[in-house]
Amino acid sequence: MLTSSPNWVTHAHTFRRRYERKYYGVDIVFVFKNSIYQGKLKDIGLGGAYVHTRKIDRFLEGDEVTVSIPFTNGQKHVRRRGHISWKDSLGFGISFSD
Predict the structure, then answer these.
(1) pLDDT (tens digit, 9 = 90+) per residue, 41-96?
(2) Separation in Å, CA 33 to CA 64, 65, 67, 87
(3) CA distance 63 to 77
């Protein structure tokens, strides 16, 4: 079930989102440098998403990742490529580039 997330969010810094985010809360896989990692997609919008992962120490701001996002019915996935725009101790924000 998708629920609204506020436009103002405080992480490492405060910023205004260009697009509204929706809570998603599903397990995902993502690819970085030809390796597959697991995470949880916490929220998503047209411009980006937040991924919670235990492997946060392996990524830097600016790194390109591709996330495989399952539809809520679990039947299909959509892949989105983007760059890590910021990170914290629990995960990272992605700005979609495609």
Answers:
(1) 999 999 999 999 999 999 999 999 999 998 877 778 899 999 999 999 999 999 99
(2) 8, 8, 12, 18
(3) 22
Which pair of tokens denotes residue 13? 């810094």
The pLDDT tens digits of the residues spanning 34-53 come to: 999 999 999 999 999 999 99
Q: CA-to-CA distance for 28 and 53, rounded, in angstroms?
A: 10
Cα→Cα distances 65→34, 57, 70, 75, Å: 10, 14, 16, 23
pTM for the predicted model, two decimal places: 0.78
Does residue 81 contact residue 66 with C-beta atoms inside 8 Å? yes
Tokens of 40: 């949880």
Residue with tokens 């992605």: 94
